[in-house]
Amino acid sequence: MAAAEYYGYQPDYVTSNDDLAYPPYGGSLPQHSFATDTSYNPHKHQRDSTTSVATQSKLYADPYAEDIPLNTRRPSMPSPEHSPSSLPPVESALPPPGSKHRPPHLSQAVKRRPWFCWIITAIQVIVFIAEIARNAVLTGSPIEIKPSFNPMIGPSPYVLINMGGRYVLCMQYTAELWQDSNGNPIEGPVSFPCPWTTKNDANCTLAQHCGFSGVPTQEEMVRDHVGPNQWYRFIIPIFLHAGIIHICFNMLLQLRLGVDMERVIGPLRFALVYFSSGIFGFILGGNFAPRLVVSTGASGCLFGVLALVLLDLLYTWRDRPKPRSELAWLMVDIVISFILGLLPGLDNFAHIGGFMMGLMLGLTVLHSPNALRSRIGLGVPYSPMATTRFKESGVKAGAFLKDPVGFFKGRKGMWWAWWLVRAGMLTCAVVATSLLLRWFYKSRVECGWCRYLSCLPVSNWCDIGNLDNSMRYSNSTTS
């Protein structure tokens, strides 16, 4: 598949073949890094001998350091009697992996382990096992087979609602449930499907239907116009999945795409984008998706990671062997994923929201593109090793805290312009999240055409899960 070819690509800066990665991206190293203190007359030797010595000495120096070498032991100089052919090849002169003389930033990508991806994947698998077990306890079967079969091979939607899936009726006051078309209170009890049901019936209260706490009684909702406030349903669905097929596809993508990206940007940045993208996707879906559907899955998070992959490709465009081919495959994957999101049972709003948040936060937390860094005089290219970036750029980790004013002195205009872009994207992310939350809880925005972003207008697909004055059974969607 297109995804397999793209996600299987391993950029130069995360491979273990570090000998081929320096000088970075084929660039030339600073002249002062090659300086060699010799005590003999260089005119007695051939030009190629001097060049070989200089080339060998750069292997033991940090090409970006001003005065702090990585190896305090000065390399021994060859005797004037030695011929150039006696010098070891450059490729074999670099200390092997694991050697104490090997620069630490060469082995950082190999040492870094994607703990966040491994831990979050393990949690999601454990939670899915709990879903299967709970469905078996409540309905007598580990997967839904009655009243209909779950095509994702997983629990019933009512079990997913009861375990914390994003479900609007459990999160806000829904006037259509408690008032008739004239705005008068509904007379008589309003019933909902029970989590343990295997029939098309509705015999439970909203509190039993939703589970957890914070659900008022029907009398309180009718009298005071208050509703449930289970806000955590924007977060919990990240760990829930609708079936075996659903979780297998998501975890496969997470362990291929997510692991590589975590190694590139580090666990903190990755976790920030991962959770923010997933939560924003569920908030967007809560505003515009049908209200009688339950949405689960980590696809919104993964679409945020996909946005990071796109930005990473653009940031290192000139340093990649076939950037146009990579971009073409990536765009094919993105377009196909969004098209599949139009099918019933898939929450395309979670995909769209996750991708949008991934772009905004990616521009905020990723380091500057290589082209920009070269223009503003930063010799260090876009590096995957976040933990060593301060060392490589000559800036100590505590420099900003020790001297905030000095940190900003001498910066070029392009540096300030890019930081304005970062600040603008962060502001957009905060404002967009705040507006969507306000619309969700205070004044739901009605958008007639927005539903077509998550469905195709065929076979009444866009009417599935819509809420009118008659209670309809919930349908499950995955993200």
TrEMBL record:
Keywords: Hydrolase, Membrane, Protease, Serine protease, Transmembrane, Transmembrane helix
Regions crossing the membrane: 115-133, 231-253, 265-286, 292-315, 327-343, 419-441
GO CC, any one term: membrane
Record GO terms (molecular function): serine-type endopeptidase activity
Signal peptide: none
Membrane topology summary: Multi-pass membrane protein
GO BP: proteolysis
Composition skew (Polar residues), residue ranges: 30-41, 49-58
EC number: 3.4.21.105
Coiled coil ranges: none
Reactions catalysed according to its record: Cleaves type-1 transmembrane domains using a catalytic dyad composed of serine and histidine that are contributed by different transmembrane domains
Start-end of Low complexity biased regions: 75-92
Localization: Membrane
Physiological role: Serine protease involved in intramembrane proteolysis.
Family according to the record: Belongs to the peptidase S54 family.
Protein name as annotated: Rhomboid-type serine protease
Organism: Terfezia boudieri ATCC MYA-4762
